[in-house]
Amino acid sequence: MKPILILLTAVSFSFPAFSQETGKSSKQTRKEEKRARVNAQIKAEEEGVIAYRKHYAFGIKLITDGYAVSFEKGYSKSVRSATLFQVEIAERKHQKEEKQSNSIAPTSPIIYGKVNFFYPLKLGVQKQFLLGNKSNKNGVSITGNIGGGLSLGFLRAYEVEVDKNGQRTFIRYDSEDSLLFKSGPYYGGPGFGKGWNQLKLTPGFYVKPGLRFDYGRYNDLVAAIEVGVAAEYYTKKIPQMFNNKENSFFFSAYFTVLFGKRK
Q: Among 80, 32, 72, 31, which Cα is nearest to 55's?
């Protein structure tokens, strides 16, 4: 009976150690397989073979005068170049915008002098050129992107809530009572649902050069940041704030975080 107990005790102690050793071996094997796959992709690209032929990526962008979200689909024809098809929607703000809240009534904040919300919708194409490749899975590849396309500027009327003959009502800058728009008395600004029935469209075009730093070039997942500048020109001047100069040309810098998938 005692030998059997000794045998069972030895097995019970050796089994966790065996399981731990097996787990470590399996984890190490996966790391080695991943390293071998990355090395094979690096070698293949050095020989001119494309590791991934297409990708899609979503972007969150900060602009010097606003913010944007974007979607991109890219096609690679060689290891050194790709074509990127992009769509982006942004909100651009005037530098003199300043929100003011009504301390008496619970209303939306008002931006005194604002005439229109400005939403550029961009449809464009960029060419991407490889500038510096990463030598291992922890490196960063650098690409230069340049291109442009069509920009459609959507202007949504900015409505303010005012007191008109004892009644609370919303008016626009081009309303018949435009004097109330400029002088009040005000209750507050518009909610998100106001002004959409007064949309106006101004077409234009843009160019956008930038640098992209890709942390996941040899991974299935896209993980990158991009910095650059953009220049936009519209066929009409864009009214954003009254008593301020209206512009048809806009220049800005941007910073984008991109994430997506390669195939």
A: 72
Measured distance CA(177)–CA(158) in Å, rounded: 14
Domain span at 38: 13-49
What is the pLDDT confidence band of residue 73, given thresholds at 50, 70 and 90?
A: very high
Distance, in Å, from the CA atom of 193 to the CA atom of 200, rounded to the nearest integer, reads 16
Q: What is the pLDDT of residue 46?
A: 52
Taking only the tens place, the pLDDT of each residue in 177-220 is: 777 777 777 777 888 888 898 899 999 999 999 999 998 767 78
Distance CA 164, CA 180 (A): 8
Identify whether residues 229 and 117 lie together within a single domain: yes
Number of alpha carbons in the 13 Å side-chain half-sphere of residue 234: 23
Domain check: are 30 and 58 in the same one? no
Q: H or E segment at 2?
A: helix 2-46
